[in-house]
Amino acid sequence: MMWYRDTPFQLGGSGRAHLKVQGLSAGYGAFLVLRDLSLEVRPGLTVVLGPNGAGKTTLLKAINGLIGRQGWITLDGEDLPEKTDQIVRAGVALVAEGRQLFPQMTVRENLELGGWLLGRDERERRLAQAFHDFPKLRERADQLAGTMSGGEQQMVAVARAMMSAPRLLMLDEPSLGLAPKMVDELLTMARRIADAGTTVLMVEQNVKKALAVADRGYVLERGALVACGPAALLARSSVVREAYLGAAAGDTHSASEAAHRAMRPVAA
Ligand SMILES: Nc1ncnc2c1ncn2[C@@H]1O[C@H](COP(=O)(O)OP(=O)(O)OP(=O)(O)O)[C@@H](O)[C@H]1O
């Protein structure tokens, strides 16, 4: 059995949120990682690709208020607050790399914590929805989260984030360190969540698989965007094929060249 039900998700978010980032600069102390970055996360599933150290996690942290930032971020036209708790209340949830579950608490308790903003009845209702969408989590409701496998913990972490009915769900490398079958399940789950009405922004190293489920993608290198476009076009573009999919230089198909040209250039 898969981890989630093969039916439309009940754990949808509220609305189809649209995030706009303009002129974003962020980093650590004097070390600026992102410089003057602009991007849009439209309803659906957007993936951010890029090599190690490109600034992908930094981007999610800046949106989530975990580090300071300069620039403008709006969610459905409203300025996104700067403090994390207010950002969460505005409907943004982050599943950080490493999942950050409470290992000594059960699956049910971890999920309940994800609904801390909700009243008791609403929390119970969403817990029931989570158990409907993820029947295996119901089976494991009383298991301590710390005793689950990496993939299982990732499922709990995503379901926990969905408990708050976010408008925007951000996933930082959800497939990191997982077996291929679990990677497929997780990425399909991200797709399901987007289809159920929560906008998803996902950082992934599994370029090919991520582009296969995403609507749109951005490629980040050394803190700047080097390409963006519809996921299908990005997958065929020479910039992605050569850098991330192992295609030899010169092995670019004419269709991929056309795809690359068709992409909206983001950086000169
Ligand atoms: N807390 C921190 N303090 C100082 N520098 C940091 C901190 N976190 C990250 N960095 C640096 O910021 C840069 C971007 O890191 P970031 O984690 O955003 O990259 P990434 O694209 O997510 O990479 P990866 O795929 O390896 O996770 C790197 O040079 C990294 O060393």
From TrEMBL:
Per UniProt, which keywords does this protein have? Amino-acid transport, ATP-binding, Cell membrane, Membrane, Nucleotide-binding, Transport
Task: Extract the GO molecular function terms from the UniProt entry.
Answer: ATP binding; ATP hydrolysis activity; branched-chain amino acid transmembrane transporter activity
Q: Which GO terms describe its biological process?
A: L-amino acid transport
Residue ranges annotated for the ABC transporter domain, each copy included:
19-247
Q: Which organism is it from?
A: Ideonella alba
- In Pfam terms, one family for this protein is ABC_tran
Give start-end ranges for the coiled-coil region(s).
none
Per the record, the similarity remark reads: Belongs to the ABC transporter superfamily.
Asked if the record carries the keyword Calcium, the reply is no
InterPro entries per UniProt: AAA+_ATPase, ABC_transporter-like_ATP-bd, ABC_transporter-like_CS, BCAA_Transport_ATP-bd_LivF, P-loop_NTPase
- Indicate what this protein is called per its UniProt record: ABC transporter ATP-binding protein
